[in-house]
Amino acid sequence: MEIWGPVVLIDDDADDQEMIIDLTRELLPHHVIHSFYNGAKGLQYLQETADQPLIIICDMNMPVMNGLDLLKTIQEDRFLRSKSIPFVFLTTGADQPTVQKAYDLGVQGFLKNPKVS
User: Fold this and answer.
1) Band of the pLDDT at 68, cuts 50, 70, 90?
2) Which residue among 61, 76, 83, 113 is least crowded, i.e. fewest CB within 10 A of its CB?
3) 56: Cβ–Cβ under 8 A, 6 or more apart, which residues?
4) What pTM, to 2 d.p., does this model score?
């Protein structure tokens, strides 16, 4: 188990992953970064690891398992919920009902990605 909790990054866009990884390494040089291209792979890691992640930074719109479904699954899983991992969405945009649903599920915040796809 790492002394410094890893950062978990889940985003299906390789350019966005690279940008977030570079920024994270600059701000948190002692933290390991685990990156995944969809929520299902991120969930598998979270279920199997003994690590206590520092934070989950997640895109909302991804194939296989989107960010809202991942957040909901984490909240419904007693083991994962007990880890109290801060969860933040990084997204290019979300409508108000989606934002409200995310907060109802326990998201800690939204970061707006200015990238236009």
Assistant:
1) very high
2) 76
3) 8, 10, 42, 46, 74, 85, 86, 87, 88
4) 0.90
